[in-house]
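Every protein is a chain of amino acids, and every chain bends into a shape of its own. Below is the pair of lines this work produces for a single protein:
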Amino acid sequence: MVRAKKEDRREEIINSGLEVFSENGYYNTTTALIAERAGISQPYIFRFFKTKEELFIAALERAFERILQTFKEVDAKPEELVEKMVDAYEQLSISHPHEISLQVVSFSIVEESIREITKNSLLKLRNYTLERFKEAGISNPEREVTTFLARGILCNISYFMDLPELMDSKVK
């Protein structure tokens, strides 16, 4: 019972961190802001995370892991795979917008540990997607995965900047 409560509190802190980091960026976020959002004292955060950086990494890893899991759950015929994966990602953007924003935030962070997590996570997504595309028999899978990931990053930036014109040619 105590362990479950402790794990629940950790999750609440990560969720609050996701929200605050995605709204304010990494450098403008303090653990005091995260604690306020979580409804706890600032020192309590440090029972779970030694530093703000460690908390950010936990949130970022969750965001990337959710994307990977979402892609793994896509069940589609080979000719529908790319479209179904795009649809799944768009749904993820709606259901977990803070996680999507957090990815954009992570691109601008210079701390090496965060840069490494971002790079490794993007490579993991690329490698998984490439294998799926190859298995589906998609022609020129390397080019297609690059286009797929580039579109996803552009989608993230479009959402983050509240600039739908980047994605939707119908918007004037």
Observations:
- The chain has eight helices and no strands.
- The mean pLDDT is 92.
